[in-house]
Write a structure and sequence with these properties.
Length: 466
């Protein structure tokens, strides 16, 4: 079985098809059950070997990408898995040598995998509600040699369904696991949950962390009163260390703009750091073939553009680089007495980041105007390219029609013209050649229309044929 192994420009649809062929599946939706059966039947190591051989030198987390595109529950569970650059950033933000790391709402394990690269000897505990993603999570941990405890359960209610232990690429099921406190807690919970869901996740991170807690939430302003009240409680207790305002279009399946809240339990001062990274970003292109429609769609590779943090961005943000403030970059340290009471209601804290400067506001407006003009020019270019493609296709179709007409003219012989005339006059095609039983005449019978009927007769003997 030949499977593509291009590591430079692999795209999602072809990777999905490769995995289906690799494990002989009927559909990609069968992969989770296949992983479960491999664990139960003792064939998990063979599964790992097959996947590693296919993956080659590719470092892309295709486990996350395939699950998110094909099976993630956006409606009910609000699943938006953590982009790799955000996972790298949170891993770099850890400022202690953690012995234990707790990943809340772990999904397919993106945050844990990046932290494990820096702290391979730590003990990892991952908590995930969706039992459909658990097999993918276990596979990802084993592939990356992460020793971890995986809890399949509801963080908010405290209900636990199953517990797994991954060790040296082996997976076993445990009877029970009791949560405690951990050196570092990270989380990318579902966004915009009802019934104070975001506050509950934030509180869970704070309550279970010893040194640091980091959570990805939607960008302020925060509308929930209970959430605002709890944020103020964190400020009063001197637990909130910094807020990072992320750029838009970081996530694959949502346009929600996010922020990162960092909790520190042993702060050396009462200040709060604000980092505006709205324009501090790079762009990456993800390749994906069309899956539905005609050949013009399925045979085409789409190049989707997303924002991300590159390595330089991550290094500066994680270490709170205090370079000169620019439109792209600004970090400000606010003293406790200067923190406004409505901080969580401010969507763009320009005054806090840059000072009350009209020049900065003007520069920001100009920056946004330039971005809008750039986007408009790009849209015009894409529109022009689309129109040219449509005209090219129309010309091609017209040339095909002309060629068909020429071919039709060449095929019209006198016999075809005669048959066409008979059909036009009598409403039926000529009968096939028949031999008269009386005189043996072997040519086509003549046809005459009389009244409402049609009478056939032999030209040789004149015998009427009924």
């Amino acid at each position: 079985m030949k499977i593509s192994n291009e590591t430079i420009k692999r795209e999602l649809y072809s990777v999905t098809q490769d995995i289906i062929k690799l494990f002989n599946l009927e559909s990609i939706h069968d992969l989770g059950e296949y992983i479960k059966n491999s664990i139960d039947n003792g064939n998990f190591e063979k599964l790992l070997q097959l996947y590693v051989e296919w993956l080659g030198d590719d470092t892309t987390d295709w486990i996350q990408a395939v699950y998110q595109y094909n099976q993630a529950d956006r409606d009910k569970l609000k699943q938006d898995y953590t982009p790799q650059s955000l996972s790298k950033l949170l891993a770099k933000m850890i400022k202690c040598e953690p012995e234990t790391v707790y990943d809340v709402c772990s999904g397919s394990g993106s945050l844990t995998l990046q932290i494990h690269k820096q702290y391979p000897n730590a003990q990892y505990i991952l908590h995930e509600l969706d039992d459909n993603v658990i097999p993918y999570l276990l596979l990802n941990l084993a592939l990356n040699n992460v020793n971890a405890t995986v809890i399949n359960g509801d963080v908010l209610s405290g209900d636990t369904f199953k517990v797994y232990y991954v060790h040296n690429k082996h997976i076993e099921q445990l009877d029970h696991y009791e949560l405690t406190k951990y050196d570092v807690v990270v989380s990318n919970p579902p966004f915009n949950l009802k019934n104070n869901g975001n506050k509950k996740f934030l509180k869970h991170v704070v309550d279970h962390s010893i040194n640091q807690g980091m959570i990805i939430l939607y960008k302020p302003p925060i509308k929930d009163k209970e959430e605002i009240k709890y944020m103020q409680h964190l400020l009063d207790k001197n637990l909130l260390y910094r807020i990072i305002y992320n750029p838009d279009r970081l996530f694959t399946s949502t346009t929600t703009i996010t922020s990162i809240l960092e909790i520190r339990h042993n702060k050396q001062n009462t200040s709060l750091y604000l980092q505006d990274c709205t324009y501090y970003k790079s762009e990456e292109i993800r390749h994906q073939n069309g899956q539905f429609g005609g050949n013009s769609h399925t045979g085409r590779t789409y190049h989707k553009k997303f924002n991300c943090y590159d390595d330089e961005h991550i290094e500066r943000i994680a270490n709170i680089w205090r370079g000169p403030r620019t439109i792209e970059w600004s970090t400000n340290q606010i003293k406790a007495e200067e923190i406004p009471s409505n901080l969580m209601n401010i969507s763009n804290p320009i005054g806090l980041l840059y000072g009350d400067s009209d020049e900065i506001q003007k520069a920001l407006d100009e920056k946004q105007k330039a971005l809008d003009e750039k986007q408009k020019a790009l849209d015009e270019k894409q529109k022009k390219e689309y129109q040219e493609a449509v005209m090219k296709m129309a010309r091609a179709l017209l040339s095909v029609d002309l060629a068909k007409e020429e071919m039709r003219k060449k095929l019209i012989t006198p016999e075809r013209k005669k048959a066409k005339w008979i059909i036009k006059c009598h409403g039926f095609p000529p009968e096939p050649t028949t031999v008269c039983s009386e005189c043996g005449f072997d040519r086509d019978f003549n046809v005459r229309a009389r009244g409402f009927g049609k009478i056939k007769y032999c030209p040789g003997c004149g015998r009427r044929i009924i």
